[in-house]
Task: inverse folding
DNA sequence: GGATTATATTCCTATATGGGAATATGTCAA
DNA sequence: TTGACATATTCCCATATAGGAATATAATCC
């Protein structure tokens, strides 16, 4: 298999920096037309349309026709799975204490992998 | 250009479900040898090694030699940028109020795009 | 030495990407 | 109708992927 499609899920969709930029712009304020995004982000129009297509397929944005414009609207809820997953690791950097513990553990690991005599198995 | 390399940053690295699995396993407990990950996740050994290679290149894991084993260790701090970015959108689903506001805004958008012209279509 | 175990690397392939350029579609207005 | 504008789509291409299979490297033990 090749790499999973960008439209597979939110994780793949937000891997692209420009798509995150688009999301960021849509987050502050009302829905935006494609042209507004083009102007704001200075990205060629076809590129913006394509990126919006990806985001729409994943459900991160939705469209509404307004005359000859298309208003793209953020549906941030689709980002929740990403947040849920990464939030688990918040403790690794949020507390000073955690960071100290981190370093201590690493030191211990490096030390043990240096000291240990040959032939050694870990749990499970 | 083609798609950005998986080793570009944390965003790209964690797009792969199996790499997230590896991270999850490394998170609960001490460093793991490759063989342990193979057994736990039931992923072929070469695949695990390759995924670990990506994670190491991005800095999400680090290695320590222990005899003929390599102990991989999580360095979760590298996930902070992801958390920082997605945390911005937490408000969209964490508070009931926010969700209500969301819906109201969407309705308004759809309405406005419905009122103006006769032409009307639903999202694809 | 040879055998065994643990891990990494190489070779292969199908597949999709993002960008650019050009073009198509769609919508308005006169 | 025509023309101007907004957006989407198509075509092309260089690039890298993830997986599988096979092999290479490395450490350990006999």
Result:
């Amino acid at each position: 298999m090749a790499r999973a499609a960008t439209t597979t899920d939110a994780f793949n969709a937000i891997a692209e920096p420009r798509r995150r930029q688009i999301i960021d712009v849509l987050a502050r304020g009302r829905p935006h037309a494609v042209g507004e995004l083009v102007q704001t982000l200075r990205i060629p129009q076809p590129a913006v349309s394509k990126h919006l297509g990806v985001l729409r397929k994943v459900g991160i944005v939705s469209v509404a026709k307004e005359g000859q414009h298309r208003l793209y609207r953020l549906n941030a809820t689709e980002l929740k799975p990403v947040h849920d997953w990464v939030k688990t690791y918040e403790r690794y950097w949020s507390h000073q204490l955690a960071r100290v513990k981190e370093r201590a553990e690493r030191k211990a690991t490096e030390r043990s992998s240096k000291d240990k005599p040959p032939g050694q198995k870990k749990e499970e």
User: Anything to note?
Assistant: Chain A touches chain B through 52 residues (CB under 8 Å).
